[in-house]
Design brief:
Layout lengths: L1 H32 L1 E9 L4 E4 L4 E3 L2 E6 L3 E6 L6 E8 L14 E3 L3 E4 L21 E2 L2 E2 L27
Parallel strand pairs: 1-8
Antiparallel strand pairs: 1-4, 2-3, 2-5, 5-6, 6-7, 9-10
């Protein structure tokens, strides 16, 4: 008689486990098929956000996305692009009815501070050579007849005579 009761208890436990497992699997499957809102923010605002499935918006914005791990790519002219991984998080804290809340994106909102691209100074064009200027100790001196601010090292300026044109 004890064997029969243990057998029935084992069968009942198996049936309950299959039923509960089927229910939780159905809920998990339903969660994976649903879409969830994910908010995007950037500093400065106006950055383009592109998700792996091709959805695009400009910050600040929200997109309805499948509840799966993915990444968000931020881009804005004049700033370095940035990619942020987004995970799916399941809370371990139970609700009042002893169930778990549905999973959510983490982080949500996805916020980034974009870094400006450093602008390199424009290359200055080399000064045109003036035949009237004289080089002294590797430095160019201005032609005669021009004013020069006093320098820390004396510069020698030699006036050049221009040949007269004879016909």
């Amino acid at each position: 008689m004890l064997r029969v009761q243990l057998g029935i208890a084992t069968v009942m436990t198996g049936i309950v486990a299959v039923i509960l497992g089927g229910c939780s699997g159905a809920n998990l499957s339903a969660w994976l098929q649903t879409k969830q809102s994910l908010r995007f923010e950037s500093e400065p605002s106006g950055a383009e956000v592109r998700t792996a499935d091709g959805q695009v918006c400009r910050t600040p914005c929200s997109l309805s996305l499948p509840l799966t791990a993915q990444s968000a790519n931020f881009s804005l002219d004049g700033y370095l692009p940035q990619t942020v991984p987004v995970q799916v998080h399941q809370s371990t804290e139970r609700l009042n009815d002893n169930s778990f809340p549905p999973p959510d994106f983490e982080p949500n909102p996805v916020a980034v501070a974009l870094q400006a691209i450093e602008k390199r100074p424009a290359k200055s064009k080399p000064a045109k050579r003036n035949s009237a200027a004289v080089t002294h100790f590797g430095k160019r001196s201005p032609p005669s007849g021009t004013s020069v601010a006093p320098a820390t090292t004396p510069a020698v300026v030699v006036p050049m005579e221009t040949p007269s044109l004879r016909r």
